[in-house]
Amino acid sequence: MPSPSTYKLLRDATEACGSWASEREMARAALDPAGLVDVLLADGEPDAAWDVVVGTPEWEPRERQWVLLAEVREASHPADALAVYVSFAEGELSHADRGRTPEQRRS
Predict the structure, then answer these.
(1) Distance between CA atoms of 32 and 107, rounded to whole angstroms?
(2) pLDDT of 99
(3) What is the distance between the alpha carbons of residues 99 and 53, in angstroms, rounded to a whole number?
(4) Roughly what angle, to the nearest 10 degrees, separates helices 46-55 and 63-73?
(5) CA distance 57 to 16
(6) Quick one: pLDDT at residue 106?
(7) CB distance 81 to 73 below 8 Å
(8) CB 45 within 8 A of CB 53
(9) Which of 14, 69, 96, 107 is the most buried (most CB within 10 A)?
(10) C-alpha dihedral over 56, 60, 62, 67, to 10 degrees?
(11) Neighbours of 5 (CB within 10 A)
């Protein structure tokens, strides 16, 4: 079953044999977008992970993945990180506002 944990096991085994370079792309191709983002971040390839998110609009990363992506992009792509943080803030504010009465919202 393809997953970040089986990817790591395969990587460890093939690195020991010296064949990871030839296996890496096949291993990544077997992963779903969530798993691929996780392994790309673990492998130190945040730009590639971001490209997966941007290139797969029908898929939405988990909150944990968004936070990790924003954190690793802050220094090199601050606008991308800011967009993630603003989106989270807007969601929290919207959620908090739903619990207020119309009168409370006007004040």
Answers:
(1) 46
(2) 62
(3) 32
(4) 130
(5) 36
(6) 58
(7) yes
(8) no
(9) 69
(10) 70
(11) 12
CA separation for the pair 19, 51 (Å, rounded): 26
pLDDT in tens, the chain (107 residues): 899 999 999 999 999 999 999 999 999 999 999 999 999 999 999 999 999 999 999 999 999 999 999 999 999 999 999 999 998 888 788 776 666 655 665 55
Identify whether the C-beta of residue 42 lies closer than 8 Å to the C-beta of residue 33: no
Which among 44, 42, 45, 39 is positioned nearest to 26, based on CA atoms? 39
Closest to 39 measured CA to CA, from 7, 69, 61, 81: 7
What is the reported pLDDT for 1?
87
Instruction: Give the burial string for 16-43 (b: 16+ CB within 10 Å, else e).
Output: eeeeeeeebeebbeebebbbbbbbbbee
Query: Would the CA dihedral through 31, 72, 77, 21 be positive or negative?
Result: negative
